[in-house]
From TrEMBL:
Domain of life of the native organism: Bacteria
InterPro entries xref list: PilZ_domain
Span of domain PilZ: 2-97
UniProt name for this protein: PilZ domain-containing protein
Region forming the signal peptide: none
Pfam families (UniProt xref): PilZ
GO molecular function, one term: cyclic-di-GMP binding
SUPFAM superfamilies assigned to the protein according to its UniProt record, in alphabetical order: PilZ domain-like
């Protein structure tokens, strides 16, 4: 079994995935520096190169211009981030830290977990 390289958190962020000229709306239900699991009612195809936009409450969205759909299952799909600009990476890392800090302060547990590889 392959070990994850990045911490993963449960998120619930509004998101958009642009495939060619079409935008698919969804919700990023978990998130790491390496990718995200997104729920959406609209179909997508594995292997497609996409742009991912994560809507951050109270901040500018995080846009990852180079990503790939790795797997699709029912209304959920995994996206792997292929390349992230340093500023976007810093914003994403800060967001993940905020999720971890908020969860630890609420119930003393770590919100990170091991999920499907993206």
């Amino acid at each position: 079994m392959e070990r994850r390289q990045h911490r993963r958190v449960r998120a619930g962020l509004a998101s958009w995935v642009r495939v060619n000229a079409h935008e698919v709306s969804g919700r990023a239900v978990d998130l790491s520096l390496g990718g995200a699991k997104i729920e959406s009612a609209l179909p997508v195809d594995p292997g497609k190169r996409v742009t991912v936009k994560l809507m951050i409450p109270g901040s500018a969205p995080i846009v990852i211009e180079q990503a790939e759909i790795r797997w699709v299952r029912d209304r959920t799909f995994g996206v792997r981030f292929l390349e992230i600009r340093q500023g976007q990476r810093d914003d994403l890392e800060r967001l993940i830290d905020e999720y971890l800090d908020a969860d630890e302060s609420q119930n003393g547990s770590d919100r990170s977990y091991r999920g499907r590889d993206v």
